[in-house]
Amino acid sequence: MSIVISEQQWSAQAMVSPYLSLRIGDAVPVESSSTAIFEPGESAWYALLCRPQQEGQAEGWLAARGVYAFHPVTSRRTKVLGRVREYERRYLPGYVFARFGGVPVPHRVLASPFLTGALCMSDGQWGILGPKRLASLHEMRARDLRQEDERREQKRRADAARRVRAGDRAMFKAGPFAGLHCEVVEICAAGGIKVRFELFGRENSVTTTGTTLVALPSKES
Q1: Distance between CA atoms of 197 and 209, rounded to whole angstroms?
Q2: What confidence category does residue 82 fall into, taking pLDDT thresholds of 50, 70 and 90?
Q3: Which residue, 8, 161, 207, 217, has most beta carbons within 10 Å?
C-alpha cells in the first residue's frame, strides 16, 4: 500500500515538524521587527500594494525596518457644521512607494499586516520603478499643492474684500500708495477691490485687494 502526499501537505508537514518535539515552556524564536526585509544589493524603488486606508500604517511599518516610503497625498481642510476637519486626498489609493536599500525579501515584506503585494513584471518578479515615473508622482502632488495655495489666497482676498463696501473710505496700508486715502468704487467677483484716489492733483483708479486696505470711519461718524 502506497501513500501519496501532495506538495501542499508536504510543505505543511515541513513547517510543523520542527515544533513537534517542543514542550510547554520552551522558547520559540520568532521573526521580529529587527529582521531585515531586504538583502544587500542596489537601492531601488518598488510599488507596494496595501490594504484600504492603511497607507500611513504601511509607511510606519516599513520605516521601522529601514525602508523609506511615501504615498501621494495632500491634506485638505473642510468645515462641516461649523467644525473644521482635516482629511487626506489620495492620488493612488492602495499604493505605497518604497525605496529599499537592497533587494527586498518578498515573504518578509508581506509579513506586514498592512501590505498585500507589489507590482510585478511579466515574470512575476517585483518591478523596479524608474526615476521619471516617481518624479511625475511628486509633480502631481506639487501641482495640487500649488492649486490649493492659490485657492487659499483667493479665499483670503475674498474675505478681506468683504470687510469694505462700495462707497466706504479706506487707506492703503501697503504697496506704493501706502498712507493714501481712497474711496471704494466696486467689489469685484474675484475678490479684487476697485478704488479711486487723488495723486498729484489728479484722480486715479486702480484695482487692489482687501489685504492692502484698511477701512476708515465714515464722515458721518
Answers
A1: 15
A2: confident
A3: 161
Q: How far is 109 from 112, CA to CA, in rounded Å?
A: 6
β 128-129/169-172 pair status: unpaired
H helices of the chain, where? 7-16, 55-63, 106-109, 131-161
Spatial strand order in the sheet of 213-215: 202-209, 192-199, 181-187, 169-172, 213-215
Residue for cell digits 484722480? 203
| CB-based contacts of 15, cutoff 8 Å, min separation 6 | none
**pTM above 0.70?**
no
Four-CA torsion 44, 49, 55, 58, nearest 10 degrees: -70
13: its cell numbers: 508537514
Asked if the model's pLDDT at residue 154 lies above 60, the reply is: yes
Cα dihedral 152, 153, 154, 156, rounded to 10, equals 90
